[in-house]
Amino acid sequence: MKDRHCIIIGGSHAAAQLAPSLRQNGWDSDITIIGAEPVLPYHRPPLSKTYLSGDKNIHDILIRPHSFYTDNDIHTMLGDRAESIDRKRKVVVMADGAEIPYTKLALTTGSHVRKIGLPGVDLGGVFYLRELDDVDRIRHYVGRGKKAVIVGGGYIGLETAAALRKLGMDVTVLEALPRVLQRVTAPEVSAFYTRIHREEGVDIVTDTAIGSIQGNGDVNAVTCQDGTVLDADLVIIGIGILPATELAGNAGLEVDNGIVVDEFARTSDHDIVAAGDCTYHYNPIYDRHLRLESVQNAVDQAKVAAATLCGKLEPYSALPWFWSDQYDLKLQIAGLSQGFDQVIIRGDIETSRSFAAFYLREGKLIAVDAVNRPKEFMISKRALMHHFSPDPVKLADDSLKIQDVLKP
Ligand SMILES: Cc1cc2nc3c(=O)[nH]c(=O)nc-3n(C[C@H](O)[C@H](O)[C@H](O)COP(=O)(O)OP(=O)(O)OC[C@H]3O[C@@H](n4cnc5c(N)ncnc54)[C@H](O)[C@@H]3O)c2cc1C
Predict the structure, then answer these.
(1) How far apart, in whole angstroms, are the C-alpha atoms of residue 313 and residue 263?
(2) Is 84 in the pocket of ligand 1 (CB under 6 A)?
(3) Model confidence at 285, in pLDDT bands (50, 70, 90)?
(4) Is the beta carbon of 324 within 6 A of some atom in ligand 1?
(5) Residues in CB range of 169: below 8 A, 6 or more apart
(6) How far, in Å, from the CA of 119 to the mean position of ligand 1?
(7) Interhelix angle for 187-199 vs 155-166, to 10°?
(8) List of domains in the chain
(9) Whose CA is closest to atom 18 on ligand 1?
(10) Atom of ligand 1 nearest to the CA of 297
(11) What is the pTM of this model?
(12) C-beta of 81 in contact with ligand 1 (< 6 A)
């Protein structure tokens, strides 16, 4: 059937995987990617790392070159927003009212930044960081010796702090909670990152919430809720994201902390799949529904979604993994640490720049944070799939080979 049309809404990691996976699974009809950003799908993680620091440019971070899409007959509509979905008539309605018929539809709409309602948030020099265009605009406010205030001590805030330090800015990170990375790591790991950032010259201020932003056209200061005033030439707000579910919700698809999909990436309408940050999906390894914000999830789930659209039902069952680059530190995370009751540290977390933190629940390994420890990361991934219960004393002993300690 050559006259079928698969439309993919959202032009990022999940879309850039879903389209070629459709071809690999034998989809020989039309494929269109509709993406609101006016660029080909690009790697988003470098935005707070090497793209912000200027070490990489747009050509370096494109997921696939332009020729890939033309060679594989994948039509792209970039800088175009899908406004609604009419499921009865099977058409996507564009912002300009144009209607595009589909046979199958894939939603890869990702997420939006969580916004903050504060006086002064609309001043020049105040940004959220999600898209390429955000970083291109941020650049105008970057400069050696200028002052940056970053609101939010999560991964994106800390990566941004590292990149701006590299560019010679004076950087303060404001975190409302008692420690950075509080929602995602153990206190030991938070303390490690606080130490490193301070060693690199970043001012980390915890237990302190932003109150308002001052300026005259452009920002010039931030006032904290405790009355402290910080000079600022640039403010970057990184306080999390929300899944982009409006299209799905308005079309009557089931939404609950993301677009609800089954293990085959099918929404409540089986002609419509969804993949990536926008989904709330069942993960058999953890035996619960999850919403993940990671490239691994976007790519792996997109492969499953493409197979489903081609009639091959392959359940999605992947171990979540993630990474964060700050200074010379490569953090690799495997598994999900929520609910841990024990943390085992391997290596000198207090003075060195390399260690692994293993998270256990009822004796079973559930996650690892490995900093400059690729071997621990790789071996842990295998042990995590086997729900392995390691010996905590041996795990902490850095003189033993990790492959011997985590042998399932
Ligand atoms: C600064 C930053 C650093 C990150 N670092 C890491 C990292 O180190 N490691 C990691 O694993 N993950 C990282 N992430 C997260 C990772 O980038 C996301 O998990 C990933 O991009 C999700 O891909 P996605 O395709 O699901 O959605 P997204 O990348 O969010 O893309 C969704 C796209 O859909 C478009 N869209 C939405 N609605 C519509 C519509 N109606 N019509 C047309 N287009 C639409 C959006 O404009 C967007 O381009 C980072 C994210 C950011 C912002």
Answers:
(1) 9
(2) no
(3) confident
(4) yes
(5) 142, 143, 144, 145, 146, 147, 148, 234
(6) 28
(7) 10
(8) 5-112+241-309 (3.50.50.60), 126-237 (3.50.50.60), 328-405 (3.30.390.30)
(9) 294
(10) 19
(11) 0.96
(12) yes
